[in-house]
């Protein structure tokens, strides 16, 4: 089942965005709606029919991205829940450190969802129709996406024992985050410089020719934008190995019920076995080899069951 092959999602995400932009670029160039040499990505999805495809595919991309980010959030949450269950003394320095990382993980998810929403906004509000909203969406997508990949890259260094986590993968994440940050600032500066020199209406940017003023700066801006899109797509591939040992399981239970340890049974709350919160923590930390020690999950042959609260 697809829910047990979560490593497929990073591959889909890595291919989906470039595939979308290649399609809209080809249609826009074929219809002479843009110049063929590195137009802005948004320029390739401004005029029908490519704008229709651009919007639809970016909406789907936003949903897939949000789902993939949620999976990563649950994986990190499970890891630190396991660390807490391993016997950390409440109120200790390590306990406070774990709670801070859990908070950072939640913040990372929120920022990731904002970035995903930004991609949808970019697709639905074309630059020729509502430029201000379109630019806001682009800032959410590229800016929020940059913050997200930085936070995940730094968090990954704190989870060296995560199953299938490798030092090389962590280094690649940092390199991708650095490339994205450099390109983001170059794009912002080059866009400002090029627009200051562009003598025509903004609606003519799509047909910015090499003979027009500011063309060199324009190419710097568009080229770095395309690189950022590729970087964000490639970043999801770094989740491939870690998600390969994770599977999801839907857990449905009554509000006034409790899980019994070492079973999937649900019993009334009057049972003295476990409180609901403790039972959920216990169930979330169970691995497929029935080991209760989350630290042992560093073994690559073990899978982690991520409970999706239902």
UniProtKB/TrEMBL annotation:
Keyword annotations of the record: Membrane, Transmembrane, Transmembrane helix
Q: How does it sit in the membrane?
A: Multi-pass membrane protein
Assigned GO CC terms: endomembrane system
So where does this one cross the membrane?
7-30, 53-71, 103-125, 131-151, 172-195, 215-240
UniProt-annotated location(s): Endomembrane system
Q: Which domain of life is it from?
A: Eukaryota
**Matching Pfam families:** Frag1
Please report the name of this protein according to its UniProt entry.
CWH43-like N-terminal domain-containing protein
Task: Specify the species.
Answer: Littorina saxatilis
